Amino acid sequence: xxxxxILFGEAATLLDVVDSAxxxxxxxxxTFISDDWFKDWQQSADFSIERMNFILxxxxxxxxxxxxxxxVMRARRWVEAISFMYEKENFLAWAAAYRGxxxxxxxTLDGLYRIPGALAQHHRLITAFLNGxxxxxxxxxxxxxxxxxxxxxxxxxxxxxEVNVLRAKENSEYVSxxxxxxxxxISLYQKLxxxxxxxxxxxxxxxxxxxxxxxxxSTGMDAAAIAALVSEYPDALSKIVQASCIPPLLTLxxxxxxxxxxxxPMLKLIDWSxxxxxxxxxxxxxx
Length: 287
Description:
Blueprint: H1 4-8, H2 12-25, H3 35-42, H4 49-88, H5 91-112, H6 115-121, H7 123-130, H8 141-152, H9 171-175, H10 185-196, E1 207-209, E2 215-217, H11 222-232, H12 236-255, H13 276-286
Antiparallel strand pairs: 1-2
């Protein structure tokens, strides 16, 4: 994408890594056992702690790989849409894609932010369980809930205060996860929503005001409208791409430890030293 550096700044370099990760990670085939089979097996004579631990951690790393791969695939699609609509100078479609990437990044942080650190912290125990060793129990239910929510959640009606991991949150709740990295992110999100919804913001950029105090309607104001929003939030797109890509790419990097999924060599070439999360993970992996 010729405009990647203009739109996404320093995060543009991550997009080449994402392309490499997608081309390799999508070769993997996933198989999950059913909940009914697992419950019946737990009551059978074949049950063992070692086998249970193997099943639990195998499905955990499989879900982590699935979630991380789909996260970067989805982010890549939104990035492509943003770039294409920028080239076509289509303000409404550009804003819609921008909004989609913003919501997607918030969802990715919600589901995957804690996953790479947890995998790194427990990597020795997970490796032991995958090799059929150890009879201790590692509780992975909280991590599984995050991954299940990320992969399976959808909008649904629920009773007040009812907890359901498969119920999608409000979009603004996902977006608010980005508040630390992007000041006024909710304000940005509200502005994008107003552009995409039937409101005056979806019309204002048609007005070409002249020096005499009047105005004409113009079909050539899209580029200026895009530039104005980029100028108002100059680092936002770069940080959104980083939020979309860093947690899943880190997860895919850590999954190399378990030798179950295709290795992605390009992940080893990234300098993670400026990322605080990566520093903590490196500490865990060394111990």
